[in-house]
Amino acid sequence: MTVDDQVVDVDAWLVAVGNGPAYAGGMRITPNAQLDDGQLDVTIVGQMSRLAMLRAFPRVFKGTHVTHPAVSTYRGTTVTIASRDANQPMDVYADGERVGPLPATMEARSSALTVRVP
């Protein structure tokens, strides 16, 4: 993974890139993300046992999972994710829908969306 110019080589259960703090019924996977800051937040859940994962999982609803030693976070405007092994395909999902295979690049674009509110 590359976040802006920082290369991160990691084995992970999950890599989540968010522009906002939550998805999927309130899971605060990128709890410090802000919709209007022009940055993408990345949360990486690294290697841990299945039991450790089950114990840590409920913390995602409050966003406190990011203090777990196996979880790391990053911020940047451009995030590129690739698999170490091109022979082992991995898919990218957005809002629960398959977008396509890795490698993938995500980019934050400040002021790209116009929103009307009452």
Structure notes:
With 118 residues, the protein is mainly β. It has one helix at residues 50-56, and strands spanning 2-3, 6-7, 12-18, 40-46, 71-76, 78-81, 91-94, 97-101, 104-107. The strands form three sheets. Strands 2-1-6-9 form a four-stranded antiparallel sheet, with no helix packed on it. Strands 3-4-5 form a three-stranded antiparallel sheet, with no helix packed on it. A hairpin with a 2-residue loop joins strand 7 and strand 8 (97-101). It is globular and about 45 Å long. The chain starts with a strand and ends in an 11-residue tail after the last strand. The mean pLDDT is 92.
Quick structural gist:
Helix content is 6%, strand content 35%. The chain is mainly beta.
Key terms:
mainly beta; single chain; 4-stranded antiparallel β-sheet; 118 residues; 9 strands; 6% helix
List the helices and strands and how they pair.
Blueprint lengths: L1 E2 L2 E2 L4 E7 L21 E7 L3 H7 L14 E6 L1 E4 L9 E4 L2 E5 L2 E4 L11
Antiparallel strand pairs: 1-2, 1-6, 3-4, 4-5, 6-9, 7-8
Task: Give the termini distance in whole angstroms.
Answer: 40 Å
Strand content: 25-35%
- The dominant shape is globular
* Backbone CA Rg: 15 Å
User: What is the helical fraction, as a range of percent?
Assistant: under 10%
What's the pLDDT, averaged over the residues?
92
The count of β-strands is 9
Structural class: mainly beta
Trace the largest sheet across and list its strands.
2-1-6-9
Spans of at least 5 consecutive residues whose pLDDT stays below 50 are: none
The main β sheet shows up as:
4 strands, antiparallel
The helix/strand series, from N terminus to C terminus, equals: EEEEHEEEEE
Number of helices: 1
